[in-house]
Amino acid sequence: MLALLLLASLLPVREAQAAEQKLLQLNIKVGSTAATVNGEKIVIAKPIVDNGTVLVPLGVFKKAFGSAVSLEGDDVVKVMYGPHTGAMTIGSTTAWKDGTKITLDAPPRMVSGTLLVPLRFVAGVLGARIAQGSGGGLLVTLAPEESGEEDTPETGGIDSGAGKTRIGNSYFEWSLNYPPGLVVGDSGGNESVATFMSAENLYYLEIHASPLETAADPDELQERLVREAEEGGETILDRATFPDAAFPYARIVSKDTSGALWEGRQYYSGGRLYELYLTDDTAANYKDLNKYAPLLDSFTPSFNAGDRSIRDLSTVKNGMREGYNDDYGISLQIPADWSMDDQRLYYESSQGSHLRVKVSSAPSGAALESWSKDLEAQLKDSYVPDAYALQEDVRFEVSGEPVLVKETRLNPGSGWSTQYQILLQKSGYRYYIEYLAAAGQDEDKERFGTILSSIDIDFAMVKENFGRLETDDYTALRSKAATKSSKAYGYSIDIPRLWTPYQDIFETQTVEYRFPGGRFQINASPEGSVEYAVSLLQSYYKNSKNDPKGPRVIRMEETLFAGVPATELTVRQTRGGISGQTRQIIFGKNDLVYTLTATLNDANATPAQQAVLEQTLNSFRLAEGGE
């Protein structure tokens, strides 16, 4: 019932957000002066096609989306939207997107006094999507940037600097001067690191922000700088502390192993360590870096959110930031302090909460209801009855499509966590979104509603970029296994299809697979003997302090395994409040010592899981003659 109330309360909120966040739209057509900007008809210079690339007037992006554009010098064009920057040079196919070098198929060019730029490149900088419009035109759509400012886009032309004189990050609370030649680099989605370079490639600058619980004075900061430089093999050329500065800091200049000179600075403020590193490839003497003092001296470990002259690099809004994968066309909000892997669509907190998204092909004839029953069957096979509690399913809507939201409470022994599973099926594909709020992380549980309402899927992207994907059909896969062999170590084994590979290169010494509440490992060592391996394990499991939660060998026996004599150990242990049992089988053949390890937590020791483990162990076979 709590889940029902939570999701029901989200419906009016989501409708209000949808109204506020109405997509901005631009309709254009090659060869036509007629365009439509957010429903309003306007006249523009004709878009053209050059080398297969559509070029459009730069001014339309400002009219349609309010993006900032500027012309530096006579030929360098910059487009800025939120934390993103694109830079192009008129007549050149070299461009930069968030500091990453890109080669354009066609360069920006002046046509009858109007600057035309590649549509797809600029749309990519903005995060806009391009689709076929009506009448052979193109439709460009973009979710408006959340901002407390009321933008009044000009009717055309190019801004002179976009009015920003400082740049920084509101979430990590720092800022510095924003000279015209400063280009924002790509930090891979990690906002704790910001990278910059000059448009002329004269210098490179990094700014790092990280937690530091214990306050550090300038002398301690200098010690850190010197120690890190020396550990990296660098030579210290100059050092100084500035305890009387408005924001006290330490500074060193060092030469790295390639001969490049670096200036490093560290500041402490508000529980954070701020690190600045600048290098200039042309610097030959440590004094050559002094010319960058005005830029570095402008750094402050603070951010004035009310100052409209500061460009904010942060995408964090209300403690959340966007995760996005352009291959699948999936975007959603992620807690700002979580690790982000947009490529794998996996996000995780330091406290054990996580969010993952998986897209697969739907089994023929399958529906949401049958998918839901499969997941429940998998749950019952993976957790003992006392370790889970199913809640009532809730129907909702994501990106205009019906979804089923499943809520389950799980307790592996360390406390009750809450798992939400969002099931969406469309056009032959399944979209599975799993959100786990770890035990004790009430804030993460409360965030689920925000995350659910933020999910946006461009379903056309999957059909465009993918064909047939793997099929997650639990009923069909639960009894299937794949035979894996190692020629180097002379064995074969049948691995369940539902197990997740952690290290699955069988020509290496160790392989490992994981499954709910357990893991399976094979180690083949050319060193030592069975007797020595067993003695090491006995020593490792020796509980000299008789800790009731520590490891206990509850059984040790001599047996036959895969046709050869073997020693089997059974061990009980509790880690992090989670109790479980480990079974290890040690044997030798052809100068190799094999150790098979099967670990299963008590909360997951269902008859189904135990049967699969037993079946997998029994499938292990040694090659004839060890080859």
Descriptive report:
The structure is a single chain. 18% of the residues lie in helices and 42% in strands. The chain contains twelve helices and 45 strands.
> What is the count of helical runs?
12
| Uncertain residue ranges | 1-5, 8-21, 147-161
Shape: globular
Count of individual beta strands: 45
**Which whole number gives the mean pLDDT?**
88
Determine Rg (CA atoms, Å).
30 Å
Which band does the percent of strand residues land in? 35-45%
**Major sheet:** 8 strands, antiparallel
Alpha carbon gap, first and last residue: 60 Å
Helix content: 10-25%
Strand-pairing-aware structural class: alpha+beta
Topology:
Layout: H1 2-20, E1 24-28, E2 34-37, E3 40-43, E4 48-50, E5 53-57, H2 59-65, E6 68-72, E7 76-81, E8 84-89, E9 94-97, E10 100-103, E11 109-111, E12 114-118, H3 119-126, E13 129-132, E14 138-142, E15 166-169, E16 174-177, E17 182-184, E18 193-198, E19 204-211, H4 218-231, E20 235-242, E21 249-255, E22 261-269, E23 272-279, H5 293-297, E24 310-312, E25 320-325, E26 330-335, E27 339-341, E28 346-348, E29 354-361, H6 368-382, E30 388-390, E31 394-398, E32 401-410, E33 417-426, E34 429-437, H7 442-446, H8 448-454, E35 456-457, H9 459-465, H10 474-477, E36 481-486, E37 491-496, E38 500-503, E39 510-515, E40 518-525, H11 530-540, E41 552-561, E42 564-575, E43 578-589, E44 592-601, H12 607-618, E45 621-622
Parallel strand pairs: 15-24
Antiparallel strand pairs: 1-2, 1-14, 2-3, 4-5, 5-12, 6-7, 7-8, 8-9, 9-10, 11-12, 13-14, 15-16, 17-18, 18-19, 19-23, 20-21, 21-22, 22-23, 25-26, 26-35, 27-28, 28-29, 29-34, 30-32, 31-32, 32-33, 33-34, 36-37, 37-45, 38-39, 39-40, 40-44, 41-42, 42-43, 43-44
Helix pairs in contact: 1-8
